[in-house]
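Running this now, will post back.
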Amino acid sequence: MRNVNLSGLRSHNTARVLGLLRAAGGDGVSRLELAERTGLTPQAVSKIAARLREEGLVAGAGRGPATGGKPRTLLRLVPDAAHAVGLHLDRDRLTAVLVDLAGVTVAVRTGPLDLGAGPAHVVAVAAAEVAALRGAGTLMGVGAAMPGPLDHVAGVPHRVTGFPAWDGFPLRDALRDALPAASRDASEEAVEGVAGGGAGAVAGGGAPPVVVDKDTNAAALALALREPGGSSFAYVHAGTGLGAGLVLGGAVYRGARTGAGEFGHQTVQLDGAPCGCGGRGCLEALCLAAVARGDLDGAARVLGVGVANLAGLLDIDRVLLGGRVVAKAPERFVRGVGAALAERARRTGGPEVPAALTRGTPHLVAEGAAQLVLAPVFGR
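Update: finished.
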């Protein structure tokens, strides 16, 4: 398979064209319509389309209906021309997915993982999963999502609760360096700024980009891509830890230091039980303690307190719940969180913020990790 010259995909105009081609699906779209919808000249669209066809990312899709003249040639995206790998590095499990250009997951691998075994071990396991998934195809990049807090721009975790060895480890660079040599020929130059950090976000000429983000942010990105632009919501994840991914005005909000959404470590009981983060009475400690003793209704009430606080602070449109803990008793958690949100609305006189479950894939975080690579290519 041809290598994809990712340096040619960096331009804003190319991303706009690719986004429209992706949205059109197999039916395709004409060059004239692409020009009309992007505001570009037909000549500019033709140049972009020619380059994309040369790279193998775009192909002909027949001819459209005649509209008073010669039928227009249609173009379509070639979904299997390239892929991205998404990795969810959870505390006790690794999920790896292979996602095509249309955003469809075409392969999934899962297995046990011990985040406490140390960064070197985890990086080796993750690189092996990438090699197993990609085969001989073109790899556009690898997205890796793990518990926070972390620096998204630098690709460096901070003090992950219970795993001090990860603090300051250069995960993005280490994973890029560990990828098999066959993965490294996917481009002449990596996508500039794919992590949102400018030219310094990706290093190593010839290596495919590796992007690192929090698990909750990756999930929030995957959910945001399904939504109309401008929506604001919180994805609240209850699994081996608690966290939140924030989407404000249609975009994932990470904060100036990429530390937004550390939802689980808000103090809700001053004299509460110690938490692994070093604090006391943290929402995460109280919620997971209730889960451990089998009190799922109690866990849902505790989670609801934190969610109601979050809704009040951010004035979001709705809350989406996910993660392994929620999956154990989804109705209980929706009911418990919904009750807390309804109580807050009664106290304030404001509108009630709805709570609902995330729908669809069980691999939301891993698929969102793949979209850390793919979404910017399509202008998202």
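The two ends are 26 Å apart (CA to CA). More later if anyone needs it.
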